[in-house]
Amino acid sequence: MEPEDLDLLYTIENNRELWNVGTTNVPYSRYALHNYIANSSSDIYVDRQVRLMIEDEEKSVIGIIDIVNFDPQHLRAEVGIVIQQAHRGKGYGQAAMEKIIAYAHLTLHLHQLYAFIATDNAHSVRLFENMGFAKGAILKDWLYDGEIYHEAVIMQFFL
Questions:
Q1: Residues 56-79, buried b or exposed e (16+ Cβ, 10 A)?
Q2: Are strands 112-118 and 149-158 parallel, antiparallel or unpaired?
Q3: CA distance 128 to 93
Q4: Comparing C-alpha atoms, which of 128, 155, 153, 146 is closest to residue 20?
């Protein structure tokens, strides 16, 4: 991430519609996100995560893909992706997933990537299935949107 990515990061992290698909449930200030970008070592072994910006053909940032919960002992990590609404359905998610899978395999030498996805998030489930992720357990009442609980599926990809 670069300092100029702050505005998009702020928009994504504070989008309440995305809070129910992850673990965020409070807004982040620009100051907190600025410090996060500034203090990130960009070393997955130090930070236990790496966040990468997704660009379109014109080099405009349109989303984020990240590896989090990196576990070097068991060689696994969670993967997450967010593409801005206006750019969804154009192949950017698949292209970004191809690159993050290659990075996880060839650079990090991970054994597996996994993701927790709301079962009613058909677009994300389809993306991960198309990338070769297999559905695992259904997790009851896993994601809370502030009103109701949603089921999630754990999806795994073995490298």
A1: eeeeebbbbbbbbebeeeeebbbb
A2: antiparallel
A3: 10
A4: 146
* Burial category of 15 from C-beta neighbours within 10 Å (exposed 0-12, middle 13-18, buried 19 and up): middle
At 69-91, the pLDDT tens digits run: 999 999 999 999 999 889 999 99
For the sheet with 134-144, list strands across it. Answer: 50-55, 61-71, 76-83, 112-118, 149-158, 134-144
| Structure confidence at residue 154 (pLDDT) | 97
Q: How far is it, in rounded angstroms, from Cα 154 to Cα 78?
A: 10
**pLDDT by residue (tens digit) across 1-23?**
677 777 777 777 766 666 556 55
DSSP 109: -
Pairing of strands 50-55, 134-144: unpaired
